């Protein structure tokens, strides 16, 4: 296994995080680098990521994920859900630095098995659990139980909003991570927010280092009851969006 957790790489990561005022401990940085090590090794036999060099991964997997943590003030009793986690991004990095519980969901079983392996090898399996499911298949016990829902590169904002609504408790927040959002997608999201009982509370913008591009985090808060009954049947949100 290629060694990712090295003193040099920890210094690189620390410099990156400091640029964005992201505070981490030595132990947390060790977890984050170990996660990349596990991800790269598993990626040799299972397609989890196209990012296979350490410098890119430090920015696009770790820094990018942890930008979300700036807006996730949570206690041990709180929990977040990562919709469409893939190889564990952003859920595993968030789990390495936040003290709350996390549910990471994806429809592909092999990816979920890998993510659960990562959590176990990192020793965070008591807080971070991955489950094979589609967002529309939310179980009754999960409904209205999450303070945060996060999603990166899953679908259009209005579609993800529909996925997220049943998961969030009153005053819970949806954090949508986007590279570049077009005005049409934003307007569709604002229209969908009214249907789902959300209000947009913040639009955060960042420029990633080393010319890795633009990043936006759209933050919506659940403050009213949804006007529509959710979830709908599997696939309906994408095939027949209610807005757009």
Automatic annotation (TrEMBL):
<protein>
    <recommendedName>
        <fullName>Ribosomal RNA small subunit methyltransferase G</fullName>
        <ecNumber>2.1.1.-</ecNumber>
    </recommendedName>
</protein>
<feature type="binding site">
    <location>
        <position position="84"/>
    </location>
    <ligand>
        <name>S-adenosyl-L-methionine</name>
    </ligand>
</feature>
<dbReference type="GO" id="GO:0032259">
    <property type="term" value="P:methylation"/>
</dbReference>
<keyword id="KW-0698">rRNA processing</keyword>
<dbReference type="InterPro" id="IPR029063">
    <property type="entry name" value="SAM-dependent_MTases_sf"/>
</dbReference>
<dbReference type="GO" id="GO:0008168">
    <property type="term" value="F:methyltransferase activity"/>
</dbReference>
<dbReference type="InterPro" id="IPR003682">
    <property type="entry name" value="rRNA_ssu_MeTfrase_G"/>
</dbReference>
<comment type="similarity">
    <text>Belongs to the methyltransferase superfamily. RNA methyltransferase RsmG family.</text>
</comment>
<comment type="function">
    <text>Specifically methylates the N7 position of a guanine in 16S rRNA.</text>
</comment>
<keyword id="KW-0489">Methyltransferase</keyword>
<feature type="binding site">
    <location>
        <position position="152"/>
    </location>
    <ligand>
        <name>S-adenosyl-L-methionine</name>
    </ligand>
</feature>
<keyword id="KW-0808">Transferase</keyword>
<feature type="binding site">
    <location>
        <begin position="135"/>
        <end position="136"/>
    </location>
    <ligand>
        <name>S-adenosyl-L-methionine</name>
    </ligand>
</feature>
<dbReference type="Pfam" id="PF02527">
    <property type="entry name" value="GidB"/>
</dbReference>
<keyword id="KW-0949">S-adenosyl-L-methionine</keyword>
<keyword id="KW-0963">Cytoplasm</keyword>
